[in-house]
Amino acid sequence: HVQKKRRAATARRQHLKSAMLQLAVTEIEKEAAAKEVEKQNYLSEHCPPLSIPGSMQELQDLCKKLHAKIESVDEERYDTEVKLQKTNKELEDLSQKLFDLRGKFKRPPLRRVRMSADAMLRALLGSKHKVCMDLRANLKQVKKEDTEKEKDLRDVGDWRKNIEEKSGMEGRKKMFETGE
């Protein structure tokens, strides 16, 4: 009993599917015929039948008319192409904004690039800006002078002797007298 119902349901489903496909085919055929009729109407309206005249002057006039028509059609085509490009750009911008709002931004894979700091700054700031990343270039030259502390440290020599001298009360007394 259950299998009969299933068979009936699948048969009905397949019948409905085939009926829908037939309807879709007839609709597509109707649309194609309507487009063909529309095309014929447009051509008959915009392109009258060509009658080739016999004299040279009439042929030249016809050529001039055809050239003028070609120029106007080219201008229209150019205008529509520009409008199409503009709308495509707007669509891309809007879809990018929508993508950003959703937060589903896919990071592009990054490649490792060996580049010096100078080259990186030049790439970022442009070739107009002269940038030098040589950090040692602008440092001030300092002559090494012997300071008194360094002399004292050299004179002290072994640290053990220094500690022995300053140990006990005598060492404290010496430190107090010398002012260290």
Automatic annotation (TrEMBL):
SUPFAM superfamilies linked: Troponin coil-coiled subunits (SSF90250)
Claim: Acetylation is one of the keywords in the record: yes
Cellular component per GO, a single term: troponin complex
One term of GO molecular function: actin binding
Domain of life: Eukaryota
Record keywords, A-Z: Acetylation, Actin-binding, Coiled coil, Muscle protein
Transmembrane segments annotated in the record for this chain: none
InterPro entries tied to this protein: Troponin, Troponin_I, Troponin_sf
Residue ranges the record marks as coiled coil: 25-104
Record's keyword annotation contains Acetylation: yes
GO biological processes: cardiac muscle contraction; skeletal muscle contraction
Family: Belongs to the troponin I family.
Physiological role: Troponin I is the inhibitory subunit of troponin, the thin filament regulatory complex which confers calcium-sensitivity to striated muscle actomyosin ATPase activity.
Subunit structure: Binds to actin and tropomyosin.
Protein name: Troponin I, fast skeletal muscle
